[in-house]
Amino acid sequence: MNAYVNIERRPELERPVLIAGFTGWNDAAEAASLALSTIGEASGAERFGSFDGEEFYDYQTVRPQIKLVEGVTRTIEWPENDLSATTASVASLGGRGAVLLSGPEPNFRWRAFSQAVVDLARDLDVRLVITLGALLADVPHSRPVSVSANAQDPSLVENLGLSASRYEGPTGITGVLHRYCAGKDLPSVSFWASVPHYLPSVPSPPAALSLLQSLSNLLGGGFDTAHLERTSEDYQRQVSAAVAQDPDLTSYVHTLEERYDSQAESGTSNLPSGDELASELERFLREKGDEE
């Protein structure tokens, strides 16, 4: 096991996937972290380890937290990336087990961190790495959340009908992690939700819900999203009421809506249907297993 990974117990998993979501730059409107926590709660995932935070964090940027235990004893909670795992195969994950990687985006040693994730995945026989992210974009809150999916493995792109990323520019830990996965022949998929740039600090249940729906399409399962659906409805009502009080913002949102509707009429989603994705994923992973 990689020296940067602290394992408290080894989970027993069947055909596991590794799902990662990092707070910070990769997590606009907290959509990715909210989606990942929902997966953990729905699947009954239990902690089994963590990454060595001392190696990866600037504690002046991501500060430790003082906590009171029983109102008396003071203790320190250090920033770290938690590892949790399902205790059995989960129907909502297409009958697979899952490793969940959560926590702040590391400040240091991204290459060492990414290599540690790949080593962990290999040690636990992970078949697919999936990252969840969210970015600020020129999109209206009043329309369905757009989720893009891409992969760097050419055969995965072709078999699952995803897209190869054409993005050039600054990247986060997810971009580095996917590059390392590709270099180690470990299949990986990245989902990114677009959230309104005029709501950068408002947690977005609709974006988290869309990420989960995209993940369900890929894995051929489904999550209990009743709570997210209710909070998404509340989000839409509250944001719409706030926007209506500002004539300039109302006009701007209307412009975004017209642009969104025009693009929706002229284009189609890059993602195939959920059944097609699940079927192709099963075939792809089976062929990969036969090759190994």
In short:
The chain is of the alpha/beta class and about 290 residues long. About 40% of the residues lie in helices and about 20% in strands.
Low-confidence stretches: 268-274
Output the CATH homologous superfamily: PAC-like subunit
Indicate the mean pLDDT.
Answer: 86
Q: Helix content range of the residues, please?
A: 40-55%
Q: Structural class of the helix and strand makeup?
A: alpha/beta
Please, could you describe this protein's structure?
The radius of gyration is 20 Å and the shape is globular. Helix 3 crosses helix 5, helix 4 packs antiparallel against helix 9 and helix 6 runs antiparallel to helix 7. The protein has one domain: PAC-like subunit (Rossmann fold, 3-Layer(aba) Sandwich). The strands form 2 sheets. The protein has an 8-stranded mixed beta sheet with strand order 1-3-6-7-2-8-10-9, sandwiched between helices. It has a two-stranded antiparallel sheet with strand order 4-5. It is α/β, with parallel strands linked by helices. 41% of the residues lie in helices and 21% in strands. A hairpin with a 3-residue loop joins strand 4 and strand 5. The chain contains 9 helices and 10 strands.
